[in-house]
Design a protein that fits this description.
The protein has one domain: Fusion Protein Consisting Of Minor Coat Protein, Glycine Rich Linker, Tola, And A His Tag, Chain: A, Domain 2. It is 33% helix and 31% strand. The chain contains five helices and five strands. The protein has helices at 22-29, 31-34, 37-48, 53-57, 88-99, and strands spanning 7-11, 14-17, 62-71, 76-83, 113-124. Strands 1, 2, 3, 4 and 5 form a five-stranded antiparallel β-sheet that branches. The longest helix is centred in the middle third of the chain and has 12 residues, at 37-48. It is elongated. It starts with 6 loop residues before the first strand and ends with a strand.
Length: 126
């Protein structure tokens, strides 16, 4: 008998423009509200990250936070685990998953990289 697993992946983000002056940094932080690059990045993450299959299969849930650096070529150049979920395999799968994202929206003009702080929640669907 085959079992079917359904999970929910949720992410929110806080963004910093790493090469912009303070006024532009504030504007970048407000992009989620104004529907700019950060909103596009959030949509890209939510649509392309998956609940790790092994975690789903074993009913593992958790919340963690990562810092993700995106380069001008739209690829992920760094992922740092800021807060663990308490499950090493879930943390590792999340970090690997972010490194596999390679087609982020093009960065705003004049910005060479962006750093996102992404809280991630994995929860089994009811």
């Amino acid at each position: 008998m085959l079992k079917s697993f359904t999970g929910v992946f949720a992410a929110t983000l806080v963004a910093l423009a790493t090469t912009a002056p303070a006024s532009a940094k504030l504007a970048a932080d407000n992009d989620v509200v104004t529907g700019g690059w950060d909103a596009q990045a959030h949509s890209y993450i939510v649509n392309n990250m998956n609940y790790p299959f092994s975690a789903q299969k074993n009913g593992i849930e958790g919340q963690l936070k990562v810092r993700v650096k995106i380069a001008a070529n739209r690829s992920v150049t760094g992922v740092e685990l800021l807060e663990t979920s308490g499950n090493r395999s879930l943390d590792k799968a999340t970090v690997s998953g972010f490194f596999n994202l390679s087609n982020f929206p093009a960065l705003p003009a004049g910005v060479s990289s962006k750093t996102l702080v992404v809280p991630v929640t994995y929860k089994m669907a009811q």
